[in-house]
Amino acid sequence: MEEASAQQQGAAFPAPPFYFQRYTLENINLLEKAKADPQNPEIAKNVEQLSFPISALEPPPPVKKGVCWMFGRPWPVQDSLASLAEQGIEQLYPKETFDRVKELKKLNHSAVFNFLELVHTLSTSPSE
């Protein structure tokens, strides 16, 4: 019974990659020492004993152009907001400049009016 329940349990996230075990405090300190004094023979000896190249502990350089892959999908590095027309969405406000304060007040009045209308309907005949 316990085996069946153990098989049914799943992880919400995948297990971390195997190389996460490389990032120990000792290895990170060794990387810092190797950067500071690359000619030191003691540090070179410790670096040679590692089962992986010490450069693998360096973070990769940030992607500056093109796309990067995240969650299995490509994402543009230079994130730009597409216009409504580019997204195929109708633009409900004028393209030229307009008074944002006036438009927001109209939107606020409309929301308050509809809310009060809903409250009135619920208070007079709640069965509807």
What does this protein look like?
The chain is mostly helical and 128 residues long. Among the domains are: 16-62, no CATH class; 95-128, no CATH class. 45% of the residues lie in helices and 6% in strands. It is built from 5 helices and 2 strands, in the order αααββαα. A two-stranded antiparallel ribbon has the order 1-2. Helix 2 packs across helix 3 (41-49). The longest helix is centred in the last third of the chain and has 25 residues, at 100-124. It is elongated and about 85 Å long. The model has no long low-confidence stretch (mean pLDDT 83).
Secondary structure elements and their pairing?
Layout: H1 2-8, H2 25-36, H3 41-49, E1 67-70, E2 73-76, H4 84-87, H5 100-124
Antiparallel strand pairs: 1-2
Subcellular location: Nucleus
Pfam families: Med7 (PF05983)
Keywords: Activator, Nucleus, Transcription, Transcription regulation
Compact description:
It is found in: Nucleus. Component of the Mediator complex. With 128 residues, the chain is mainly alpha-helical.
